[in-house]
Amino acid sequence: MNVIKGFLWLLGFLLLGDLLVTWLQLPISAGVVGMLLLTAWLILRGRLHTDIAAVSQPLIALLAMLIMPGVVGVFFVLGDYAHFWLAAVLALVVGTLLSVLTTLWLMSRMMPRQPPRESDDD
Amino acid sequence: MTEFWTELVLLRDHLTATPIASIAITLSAFFAGNVLFQKMGRPSWCPGILLAALLVVLLLVVLGIDYTRYQAGASWLVLLLGPATVALGVPLFQQIHHIRALWKPILLTLPPAATLAALYAMMLAWLAGATPELLASFAPKSVTAPIAIGITEQLGGSVPILMGGLLVTGVMATLWVNLLSRWLKIDDHRVLGFALGINGHAIGTVRAFEISPTAGAFASLGMGLTGVFTALFLPLMWMLLGL
């Protein structure tokens, strides 16, 4: 019963997100707005909601299965996009190399040292 | 013999007339893919979801089921993606103490890192002559799938191409973080986890949990915040660029 109640809560936040997206003509998906509303509500509440926690855990565990049909689609459309292979390799392989490099560099600059080692380097 | 064959084809068409067959195919491929993934020793270069998807492709081809028919049936299952995305608010809430403790470095690094992850991909693809549809499919490549699907649909990209991009990006991010952190001599697990989550979404986060629980927590945090930030920033940038 907890799971059903929790699921109803999630649907409520999803519908609320959809309402906001429609009214304010936001260029964001209803699910993301619902997620942010749920997070904000939990912060205001100050603690986790047991029914929502009960349904969230199994649902999140299922995420991989829910996006799998989309992955199946790749193999059926790949032929239509084959001539863009260079764009794909550049964006996905080189682009990810650059963004990992940037992130590591930025993070190691900004993050306060966890185990205080030599304080005089940098 | 031919009569028997026609009978079989009719039976298949009867079974695939409702979404049940598609859902059963998806579930069984998911479990079989998982078993295969464990048997292979959980390789980071081949995510379990790719194995499962290949099994579905194999089943569809062997059984002669039309892809659009499968997709129409599976969409009943994919409907759950909406509430599952909302559910991601729970782990985000559970990470809130990390955000409170380290809000300054997070604020200084996450927005530029997430912005650049999208921009690098778009610039490089654009230089190679990609269409606006392709740019919209690659832009959210570092975002966790449920959020990225919403973004790509908003921008007018192709969801199947996005899914392929997400898989490649996740695998590449894991590889690059491994190689570059050794080269740059970075061994702070918070930094490694963050880099894996920001660039490699769920695939990177799985790898981070293998490094340490701290790396895993920061990867989930990086993944969640990148998803939220990119979902807000990309559509706005799209409007400004007039794409």
From TrEMBL, chain A:
Keywords tagged on the record: Cell membrane, Membrane, Transmembrane, Transmembrane helix
Protein name: Antiholin-like protein LrgA
Organism: Nitrincola lacisaponensis
Bilayer topology term: Multi-pass membrane protein
One term under GO cellular component: plasma membrane
Subcellular location field: Cell membrane
Pfam families registered for this protein in UniProt: LrgA
Primary location: membrane
Segments passing through the bilayer: 30-48, 60-78, 84-107
TrEMBL record, chain B:
Pfam families per record: LrgB
GO CC terms: membrane
Membrane topology (UniProt): Multi-pass membrane protein
Main location as per UniProt: membrane
Transmembrane segments annotated in the record for this chain: 20-37, 49-67, 73-93, 105-128, 161-179, 215-241
Domain of life, per lineage: Bacteria
Subcellular location(s) per record: Membrane
Annotated keywords: Membrane, Transmembrane, Transmembrane helix
Protein name per UniProt: LrgA-associated membrane protein LrgB
Species per Swiss-Prot/TrEMBL record: Nitrincola lacisaponensis
Taxonomic placement: Bacteria, Pseudomonadati, Pseudomonadota, Gammaproteobacteria, Oceanospirillales
